[in-house]
Amino acid sequence: MELSDLRVFQQVAESGGITRAAEKLNRVPSNVTARIQKLEEELGKPLFLREKNRLRISVAGEQLLGYSHKILDLAQQAVDELQQSHPKGVLNVGSMEAVAATRLVDPLMRFHQAYADVELNVTTGPTGVLIEKVLDGEIDMAFVADPSPDPRLAIKPVYKESLVLVSDLHHKPIKKPADLDSEATLLGFNHRCAYRTRLTDWLNQDGTVAKVVEISSYHALLSCAAAGMGVGILPEALLDDYPFRDNVQVHSLPMKWRKTQTAIIWRHDSLKASMEAFVECATSG
After folding, report:
1. pTM score, whole prediction
2. Mean of per-residue pLDDT scores for the chain
3. DSSP letter string, 187-206
């Protein structure tokens, strides 16, 4: 059953005849008749009762007329929705913990104030997991660290960060991996975290191996570092909001390992108006 056939049927029912319907549809009467006959064959029931030179809608036709109005209205609604350029619907955004803690407040406020009709959901996770979720369509877009080029992904750099090491106040200065104790403990997030990978890569250049204790939040990581439980890595910006900043010692990393780029990523084939609007809010501050 084609939408065009339903439009023809609906016009015949409303016009009360083939000739008048053909005029309104700008078709020849034979084409209108053929469309009605096609529908009747598909449904196995007559849609009109033919009495001399006039048509009267049948019981089956009355039933179909009600459905045709609903179907055609719904089809038009779908077209209108797809052509709608104003953000609406649901937007699922993923973010690294560090970005959620330091960077997201302003863009979230700007977006919500400008597009209150959009249902915005924010989840956090390590970079590796967030990239997989974007590729799998579980979330629309995500803030991740140093994403590798991928032909499926659009990558928009948004923030530059400086990574630092943190330890307790009594730890000797750390300038190279050898400055860590022989049985050093690292404090880090999930193994899919880009910052943890950066730290282990820095250590591996000298063949240093360390035990890793996984931490679920940066405030917990900082507290553990202050207590002398290990050495952690994090964006320096996080220290600005840490109330016990004076209880930790900060160590600079070499430039190669210090600089990192946060980017928003999304699938090229899944861009929608709400995503474009969110990117604008995240980059306009």
Report:
1. 0.71
2. 90
3. EES-TT-HHHHHHHHHHHTT
